[in-house]
Specification:
- Helix content is about 40%, strand content about 40%.
- The protein contains three helices and eight strands; from the N terminus they run αβββββαβββα.
- A three-stranded antiparallel sheet has the order 1-2-3. It has a three-stranded antiparallel sheet with strand order 4-7-8.
- The two termini are about 65 Å apart.
- The protein is elongated, with a radius of gyration of 39 Å.
- With about 170 residues, it is an alpha+beta fold.
């Protein structure tokens, strides 16, 4: 077995590995200088020159300029659920009793007047209830338009997003 050939092979492999690691670290440094945002399943990256491209980091990406952003708004749904009990104290059968007394002393007219008087009696009550309101946001349609700087072609990216995501996208493209 020729140890010098084996030694040369190992040395070349080590150099290539070191070069690969160096190149990868340089690429990571460049990628770290860029900012990115996700719109739905699409990632948009902003270069240090202020241009945009779609997808993962690339040294030679297809570059775009920001054209427009439209968002129809999301829908906010509020639901309130109230649970509890009501306890009342007072004259439950008063209207019927007063109607009977009124009938005896005043005939049919007395019965009507007695029922009204009995029904107007005060009742005291206590209400124990709990209300819980939940808010749900249903994402709305957003459309982002990017213009290719070489072909002038406009690319449209559509996604369902929330109001907070829309604000972040607006800030990203300022």
């Amino acid at each position: 077995m020729d140890y010098s050939k084996l030694k040369d092979f190992a040395k070349k492999a080590t150099e290539k590995t070191a070069d690969g690691i160096s190149a990868m670290n340089e690429m990571r440094k460049k990628a770290a200088q860029e900012t990115k945002i996700s719109i739905g399943n699409t990632t948009i990256r902003k270069t240090i020159d202020g241009l945009y491209y779609i997808g993962f980091y690339s040294d030679t990406p297809e570059l775009f300029e920001f054209e427009n952003f439209q968002f129809e708004g999301s829908t906010i749904i509020e639901r309130t659920k109230t649970t509890g009990t009501t306890k009342q104290k007072g004259k439950k059968g008063s209207a019927l009793i007063h109607a009977g007394i009124g009938l005896v002393f005043g005939g049919p007219t007395g019965a009507v007047v007695g029922a009204k008087i009995g029904a107007s009696g005060k009742r005291k009550g206590k209400i124990d209830s709990t209300s819980v309101t939940t808010t749900e946001e249903i994402p709305g349609l957003a459309m982002l338009y990017l213009r290719n700087i070489e072909t002038n072609e406009v690319k449209t990216i559509k996604a369902k997003i929330t109001n907070a995501q829309a604000e972040n996208i607006k800030l990203f493209f300022e």
